[in-house]
Amino acid sequence: MGKKDPVFMASGVEAYLKDLPEAELHLLDAGHFAVEEQPVEIAKHIVTILEKLE
Q: Has this prediction a pTM greater than 0.90?
């Protein structure tokens, strides 16, 4: 998630961690379109998560 996102605020997303304690939250230096601004960093997080499932 982009920490500069004006639509989905970090505080709102952090509330999900109460319901999903195993979830990971990564606040990226990006806005609402984080996947376009930080694609490599997001891909690295996805690969890390997938490797944990193996």
A: no
